[in-house]
């Protein structure tokens, strides 16, 4: 019996893990469930990952990186502070938590990061990239405050039962920028 050549297996396992976390949460995940969903032998899990923790770190790193890229792309295409402010509002209302799966994935990552420094490294890198994108248009202090506003308002918008008025978001962005002289 020959071995099946599958050069994309590791990536597929990571992608399937991201999907499974969004559906089942980290607590509902197991190597067996991931292997079954990826249609790979359970034994191949240990070939690609030393344990579930390594697989989870890889999956969350990929997820956070994909969100950071969208954030960076949104801010890279703007010119001037006015467009940058509008881009921040769009990030809050259109980009972050654009799907229920992304909301769950983000909160699962936050929960792990609150308990485990290895996951905190992932969130710290994500925040660093977000702030660097913001700092193309705002000073570092304002960028940090806007990043916190983005996190907070996206969580409120995603979990609140009432609709959030985009004008309230624009007003908050203006107040932060006005305090910074922008």
TrEMBL record:
Residue ranges the UniProt entry marks as DNA-binding: 30-49
Signal peptide residue numbers: none
Record GO terms (molecular function): DNA binding
Keywords on record: DNA-binding, Transcription, Transcription regulation
Annotated PROSITE patterns: HTH_TETR_2
Superkingdom: Bacteria
Gene3D superfamilies the UniProt entry points to: Tetracycline Repressor, domain 2
UniProt domain HTH tetR-type: residue ranges: 7-67
Pfam family, one: TetR_C_31
Protein name: Transcriptional regulator, TetR family
Organism, as annotated: Sanguibacter gelidistatuariae
């Amino acid at each position: 019996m020959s071995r099946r050549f599958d050069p994309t297996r590791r990536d597929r396992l990571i992608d399937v893990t991201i999907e499974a976390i969004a559906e089942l949460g980290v607590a509902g995940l197991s190597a067996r469930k991931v292997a079954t969903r990826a249609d790979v032998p359970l034994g191949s899990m240990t070939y690609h990952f030393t344990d579930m923790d390594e697989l989870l770190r890889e999956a969350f790193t990929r997820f956070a990186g994909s969100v950071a890229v969208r954030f960076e792309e949104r801010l890279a295409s703007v010119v001037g502070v006015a467009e940058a402010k509008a881009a921040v509002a769009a990030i809050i209302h259109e980009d972050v938590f654009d799907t229920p799966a992304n909301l769950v994935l983000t909160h699962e990552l936050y929960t792990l990061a609150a308990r485990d420094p290895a996951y905190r490294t992932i969130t710290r890198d994500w925040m660093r990239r977000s702030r660097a994108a913001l700092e193309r248009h705002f000073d570092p202090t304002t960028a940090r405050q806007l990043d916190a506003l983005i996190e907070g308002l996206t969580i409120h918008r995603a979990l609140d039962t009432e609709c959030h008025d985009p004008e309230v978001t624009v007003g908050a962005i203006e107040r932060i920028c006005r305090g910074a002289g922008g």
